[in-house]
Design a protein that fits this description.
The protein is of the alpha+beta class and 192 residues long. It is built from five helices and five strands, in the order αααββαββαβ. Strands 3-4-5 form a three-stranded mixed β-sheet, with helices on one face. The chain has a two-stranded antiparallel sheet with strand order 1-2. A hairpin with a 7-residue loop joins strand 1 and strand 2. Helix 4 packs antiparallel against helix 5. The chain is elongated. The relative contact order is 0.09.
């Protein structure tokens, strides 16, 4: 979802900047602009002195300018951190023994590990996310356990079966996991 929003916003911003820049360049090269355009010719300034100083003495002007700029800075910082922070590992480097290696899609390993963990006895639902680097992946596993399951035995099963299968199939030396367990919601049993 974030990737799609990011691409759409960057595409729209790029189109607006390209259109405005192209129009300013065309006017600068001598093309006659329409009557509603912001400047009239190659020697015209974008904002005249009167336009720049028109609102300076109003009480609301500077707080509004500062608030708008602060919101823009906060939005830009939010966007930058969301772009730089990679939540999921896209691919895992598998050592094939011949020195070349192979790439395994991270989502494929995630889905297989989630299906394997979800099939364990007493696990109602499992979610897996790969993080880390492609040569040293790490996992975050969220398990929703049935009410009768012992969390310790579920963790042992996950470690000795699901994570061991994933580690062996991807030829990884180690596959650290951060496991979070929650109990599945259930209706209260009636006693009569």
């Amino acid at each position: 979802m974030l990737r799609t929003v990011n691409r759409v916003l960057l595409g729209l911003l790029g189109l607006v900047l390209l259109a405005v820049g192209g129009a300013v360049l065309a006017v600068g090269l001598g093309v006659r602009p329409p009557s509603w355009w912001i400047h009239d010719g190659p020697h015209d300034v974008l904002l005249s002195t009167a336009e720049r100083t028109k609102w300076r003495d109003e009480d609301w002007w500077w707080p509004t300018v500062i608030a708008v700029l602060a919101v823009l800075v906060l939005l830009a910082l939010w966007w930058l951190t969301s772009v730089l922070r990679r939540r999921r590992l896209a691919e895992v480097l598998v050592d094939t023994g011949d020195g070349a290696g192979a790439l395994l899609r991270g989502r494929a390993l995630q889905s297989v590990l989630a299906a394997d963990a979800g099939s364990l006895e007493g696990v109602a639902h499992a979610e897996v996310h790969l993080t880390g680097r492609r040569d040293a992946p790490e996992t975050r596993v969220r398990l929703r356990l049935e009410p009768h399951v012992d969390p310790g035995s579920a963790l042992n099963q996950l470690t000795n079966e699901s994570l061991a299968h994933a580690r062996d199939s991807a030829a990884l030396k180690r596959l650290p996991a951060d496991v979070t367990m929650k109990a599945a919601k259930h209706k209260a049993a009636r006693v009569s």
